[in-house]
Sequence to fold (319 residues):
Amino acid sequence: MKIGVVTFPGSNCDYDCYRAARELLDAETVYLWHRSHDLQGVDAVFLPGGFSYGDYLRAGAIASLSPIMKEVRVFADEGGPVVGICNGFQILCEAGMLPGALIRNRSLKFSSRNVHLRVEQSVAPYTSSYEVGRLLTVPIAHGEGCYVAPDEVLAELERDGRVIFRYCDAEGSVTPEANPNGSARNIAGITNAAGNVLGMMPHPERAVDPLLGTLDGVGLFQSLASYLAAV
Amino acid sequence: MAFNVEVRVVPRRGILDPQGKAVQGALSTLGFGGVGEVHVGRLVRLEIDARSAEEAQERAVSMCRQLLANPVTEDFEVEVLQGAGSGR
Fold:
């Protein structure tokens, strides 16, 4: 098993992803430089959080055109697992690999804190080790995490079970108060139609060690590990 | 010939624009009455080499579609400025 973590100029969660993948998946893990065209034979790709290209123009817009993204797109088209976390989610939307867009938080504030998530789907490759309805505590840290998409796209996401995580309160209720950024339908994470590309604003890679206060991100890595072990 | 082109990108109507809302609130705090909706966008000035104003316009539109504007959340206008091509 080999995992790749893409580093763009301005990525700042690449080491967190690297460490989580290496230690939780016990996998060979490599950094992939944004200017490279070589995925080095990895079995899954992480697009980490950060502020690629200083969020110039729009968050993720410039990074979505990086040389490595051509290869990431081909890899995803062939069914390879690709996870975009925070800035990585923004990059996937800008690249058109996930529908919709992430705009400025409704509060206009950068929000960095733990939030509650509800697991909406228990599916490979990312959430099979969680049961549906499981509540997770996972940190967010973003200023542009408000997910928007045309109504027909939102309906399609719901209908096809592609909303994977939703913001909720400590009891698991999906309420406007529990929505940290104004995202449509409290959406925190979605997949593409094939299910192999996941984008999410919260940071599972920062919820993998007792020192970090929560271990609720571990399941995502375990799910991916069992998926990769089976293919 | 080089043409000076201005691209104006604004949040699409109906899409949440918290920045516009905040500015609207601040204007009202300052005592500016009668201000309706406010939308904050971005202005991109480009110098484009083209054979004609039409070609400069077309190229700028193509740039907007591919990069300068987000097709999900933003609308854009392209203007090739008068007197372009003078100088360079």
Observations:
- Chain B has a mean pLDDT of 91.
- Residues 11 and 74 of chain B are 4 Å apart (CA to CA).
- Strands of chain B lie at 2-11, 42-49, 74-80.
